[in-house]
Input
Amino acid sequence: MASAGGGATPRVGFVSLGCPKALVDSERILTQLRAEGYDISADYDGADLVVVNTCGFIDSAVEESLDAIGEALAENGKVIVTGCLGAKRDVILDAHPAVLAVTGPHALDEVMGAVHQHLPKPHDPFTDLIPPAGIKLTPRHYAYLKISEGCDHKCSFCIIPSMRGGLDSRPAGEVLREAEKLVESGVKELLVISQDTSAYGVDRKYRTDFWGGRPVKTRITELAKELSTLGAWVRMHYVYPYPHVDELVELMAAGGNLLPYLDIPFQHASPTVLKAMRRPAAAENTLRRIERWRDMVPDLVLRSTFIVGFPGETEADFEELMQWLEAAQLDRVGCFTYSPVEGATANELPGAVDPELAEQRRERFMHLQENISANRLIAKVGREMRVLVDDIAEDGTVLARSAADAPEIDGVVYVEGADDVAVGDWLDVRITDADIHDLWAEPV
Ligand code: SF4
Output
């Protein structure tokens, strides 16, 4: 049996039989038990119940599993059975009708459900190792909120739909409950992510879900509206310019927690290239849309990514992209040269662009954007704004972000002369200087 823990918390004995796959299942169950605060008992006597992870591969393994269940029942009396033999429920129940529950292999949730039912988990906050918001790899004050998985588009350079399948949106209530827990645990900024945020809920036909007893449609505008009531900043990533994005911009115009920030992967501006890329919303007049959005929200920050050197991209296509960028005056831009991805349909397109030429185009594109970015940032000097503190350097300089800056990918606001500040604090500052990517500020 697995090694023992200590204390008066509920104790679970564990017998692990079978192959390495079964062993991994055992590790996951043991990890979850420990994470929920259970102790693991090394002997039957010290255990409040015993989980037996069985093997059913060959007759001798079935025999060994049935013997192990019999021994656990005789020594302890409370036994939950899981694993491959669990798939043959009748075999187990015929031999040992007194077992508490039987599940099949890879059934972590079912096993934990049976454990909870027969041995309730401890609620001591000092021993509960998992915070209510779950384990996050981001700093405590911001968190990514995934609202859907997969994608219904077929962009020719991308294999995500074949890897992750079609759009699968989480019900609005589930997303909102997760967001609520995150905010309760100290998160100040929610970064909404998916493959195609604008399409959220299309697969569920925008079905109505419930949150806090209230109906909420599984649709991006309604979700954004509810998320912005939680008290944290809400930042939208991967938004395609579908018509209803205007509704999101209207919400941003209201000036609440939904940040005036849109991360829209435009990828190109030439209709010929966009068509070859098979981009969603390729036919939109994006410049007109941007103009209208900026009329509605003058401070709207637009971030985007682009691919240059896509197969078939001519000098004229690239010039069109440069003119578009000059006119669009985006705030933040990333640009990549095209590189084939195994399995992508773009690999069969004619007109491969020489990698050196593609790199030259990328450099020209980024040079233009640097000028645009620098001008847009310098225009902020003298303005007051609220920032969120990400870090404090050894010399006391505060590294923060404004509504215009997503973590990791955008710029930073360096605040000098701020005292008594901690990571995760809000700070009101006045902008004093700017360069191509970042701002400098003083507290107000
Ligand atoms: S690049 Fe296109 S196909 Fe790939 S995830 Fe984004 S929208 Fe979907």
Observations:
- The pocket of iron/sulfur cluster is lined by residues 151, 153-155, 158, 160-161, 195-196, 280 (CB under 6 Å).
- The chain has a mean pLDDT of 90.
